[in-house]
Task: inverse folding
């Protein structure tokens, strides 16, 4: 078995809810998440807004300190890294943010934006201008964009700049936090293809966070479905899309719009009525049970274990544990 | 993406400001090769800012007032007919409390050679004070004193506050609490009262310091355009500067902290952190440039405030001591002869008023010009006019 590049074990992050004098409660943003990503592959992390996807992304890069749990990068616990090793990890593991309109400093030119990481890590670059123009070409821009400010660019171009800034560091692992959700559909496709090309070219590993299921399907090798701070289903992308197991996943996928009214009418629809409950006070037992059409008595009492139903296809649901 | 320069209807002023900015760009390009090419977007931005500024009559009035003030402060001591401490009563007994327009005659041999004054008839433009010192000359020297004091305060005081605000705002938590409570202690006392307390403590030490460092003393004397024998009087002026350093920062600390609190939530700050950019760089390169606009406006508005406070302290008898010609001091000395010798209060008061007004007008206009939202609306108006005129 090859070693996974990123291995996440029982990761938890609780945010305090502060009262006037004491902490009133905890928001369980991430509550026991585990997964692995192999080198050169993409894990798609899906779920509705507020389920903790972005928090997972930040924890994996140590932009946040977890409440408990570990993240191993190349076999090393990233929360124990110090000094030059931490710096090396920071260089290799990067992030692309959701909103390219706010993730670039409006007071810096494209040159300064892309050159900043080079200065931070004191990389040896003999001709900065040429170095950055090369990067711009890699992401589909050119030298005429070198000394412009972010406000002169469209959303897609800005996301390209953000990607070029990361490529300057020659990273291995990139967390893509909804990189296309702020963009037009036509531009989305360009950015996604760019990301795929770069992955093939530089053997990059992606954690792709999105709520857009179509995009995730296109990008991912593996899929993890999150609900209220937990992963409820995990498996190979095609398998999960073809044969979703968890009722939440089924409900999620049956909400994907199909551009064909005939098919839309015919297909089996599964509804999860209501809103996701508050992560401050999650329901006991299975977290999905108040909305689940298949709930049983057991569901409100016992929390289901994550079990492997088929080869490498895991699910956290009592429907599959009863046997 | 091209900056549509030809769309703007350019006035004479716009062409002048273009020339000035091009000149600065040319200079920068000489110093650092390729600067102009790398900063083309920035130069265009500056030009647009200048166009917006040129469309604001109050701003232009303020700019003119400040230009006059600066000119007076720089060349004033050279064009003043008399020195600030020359009693004309030595030549003409009627020169005491002479009203504006009075002619004083200085005859040869009347100590004139000794006092470096050329004999002849002099019209006292703004009158004279009770020692027979020419008010016009004293006001010119006073402009220099006011400007130097204001600059000395502004290059230190606010920056203490800005540094404290940056650190407090960015780190938050206990650091923020500690620094802000410390700031509150200073804010709890009225700045002027605190400055009075401080400025009473310092003069002796500063006098000793100046005596021990003649190079510093001579430099400061030249800055203030004072005679060497008045170094002792200058010490109390400097003590006011030091006192104002100590009380001038809390406002800036509060302002900066507030700005940092909102600026640090920007995604680009988080992105910089994700890239591994050190905290110092994040503060200086990502946060500070993006909050500089409001700080600059506050600094400009405050420039007038500093001049006013310094004049106020001098009026109260602190700071400038006789014979230093400080505007506040002149008013203080003249107050004993009011309203008979009204000019002793009116003219220096007018100078303070115009200077402070000038800085306030500029600050107000800068607020509009530096804020991209209001500037766009100004630019939009210019564009519409230009296309409608065709």
Result:
């Amino acid at each position: 078995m090859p070693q996974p590049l990123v291995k996440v074990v029982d990761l938890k992050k609780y945010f305090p809810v502060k009262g006037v004098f004491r902490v009133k409660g905890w928001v369980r943003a991430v509550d026991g998440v585990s997964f692995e990503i192999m080198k050169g592959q993409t894990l798609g992390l899906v779920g509705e807004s507020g389920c903790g996807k972005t928090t997972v992304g930040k924890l994996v890069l140590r932009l946040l300190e977890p409440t408990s749990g570990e993240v191993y990068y190349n076999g090393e616990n990233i929360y124990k890294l110090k000094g030059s090793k931490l710096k090396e990890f920071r260089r290799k593991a990067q992030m692309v943010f959701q909103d390219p309109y706010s993730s670039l400093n409006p007071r810096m030119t494209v040159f300064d934006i892309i050159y900043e990481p080079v200065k931070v890590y004191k990389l040896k670059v003999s001709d900065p201008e040429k170095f950055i123009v090369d990067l711009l070409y890699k992401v589909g821009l050119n030298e005429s964009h070198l000394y412009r400010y972010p406000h002169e660019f469209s959303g897609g171009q800005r996301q390209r700049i953000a990607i070029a800034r990361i490529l300057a560091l020659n990273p291995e692992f990139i967390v893509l936090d909804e990189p296309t959700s702020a963009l037009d559909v036509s531009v989305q496709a360009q950015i996604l293809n760019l990301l795929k090309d770069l992955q093939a070219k530089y053997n990059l590993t992606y954690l792709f966070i999105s709520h857009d299921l179509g995009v995730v399907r296109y990008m991912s090798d593996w899929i993890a479905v999150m609900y209220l701070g937990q992963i409820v289903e995990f498996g190979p992308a095609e398998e999960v899309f073809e044969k979703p197991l968890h009722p939440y996943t089924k409900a999620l996928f049956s909400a994907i719009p199909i551009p064909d009214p005939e098919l839309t009418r015919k297909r089996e629809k599964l509804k999860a009525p209501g809103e996701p409950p508050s992560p401050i006070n999650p329901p006991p037992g299975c977290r999905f049970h108040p909305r689940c059409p298949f709930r049983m008595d057991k569901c409100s009492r016992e929390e289901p274990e994550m079990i492997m139903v088929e080869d490498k296809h895991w699910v956290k649901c009592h429907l599959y544990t009863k046997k | 993406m091209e900056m549509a320069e030809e769309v703007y209807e350019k006035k004479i002023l716009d062409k002048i400001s273009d020339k000035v900015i091009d000149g600065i760009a040319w200079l920068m390009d000489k110093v650092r090769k390729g600067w102009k090419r790398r900063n083309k977007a920035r130069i265009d931005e500056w030009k647009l800012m200048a166009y917006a500024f040129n469309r604001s009559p109050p701003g232009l009035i303020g700019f003119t007032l400040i230009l006059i003030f600066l000119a007076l402060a720089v060349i004033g001591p050279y064009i003043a007919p008399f020195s600030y401490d020359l009693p004309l009563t030595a030549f003409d007994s009627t020169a005491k409390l002479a009203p504006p327009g009075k002619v004083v005659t200085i005859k040869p041999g009347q100590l004139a050679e000794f006092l470096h004054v050329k004999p002849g008839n002099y019209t006292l433009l703004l009158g004279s004070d009770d020692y027979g010192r020419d008010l016009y000359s004293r006001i010119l020297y006073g402009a220099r004193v006011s400007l130097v004091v204001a600059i000395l305060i502004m290059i230190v005081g606010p920056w203490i506050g800005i540094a404290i605000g940056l650190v407090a705002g960015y780190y938050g938590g206990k650091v923020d609490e500690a620094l802000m409570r410390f700031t509150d202690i200073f804010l709890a006392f009225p700045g002027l009262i605190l400055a009075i307390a401080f400025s009473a403590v310092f003069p002796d030490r500063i006098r000793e310091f100046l005596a021990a460092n003649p190079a510093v003393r001579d430099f400061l004397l030249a800055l203030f355009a004072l005679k060497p024998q008045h170094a002792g009087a200058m010490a109390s002026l400097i003590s006011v500067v030091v006192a104002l350093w100590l009380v001038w920062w809390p406002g800036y600390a509060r302002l900066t902290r507030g700005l940092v609190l909102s600026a640090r939530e920007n995604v680009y700050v988080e992105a910089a952190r994700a890239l591994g950019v050190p905290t110092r760089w994040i503060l200086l390169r990502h946060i500070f440039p993006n909050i500089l606009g409001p700080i600059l406006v506050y600094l400009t508005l405050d420039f007038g405030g500093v001049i006013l406070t310094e004049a106020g302290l001098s009026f109260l008898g602190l700071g400038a001591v006789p014979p230093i010609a400080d505007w506040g001091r002149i008013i203080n000395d003249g107050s004993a002869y009011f309203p008979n010798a009204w000019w002793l209060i009116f003219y220096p008061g007018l100078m303070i008023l115009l200077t402070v007004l000038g800085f306030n007008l500029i600050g107000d206009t800068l607020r509009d010009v530096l804020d991209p939202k209001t500037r766009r609306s100004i630019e939009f108006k210019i564009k519409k006019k230009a296309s409608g005129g065709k």
Remarks:
- Residues 1-6 of chain B have pLDDT under 50 and may be disordered.
- The CA atoms of residues 11 and 54 of chain B lie 9 Å apart.
- Chain B touches chain A at residues 1, 37-42, 266-268, 270-278, 281, 285-286, 289-290 (CB under 8 Å).
- The beta strands of chain B are 102-106, 120-124.
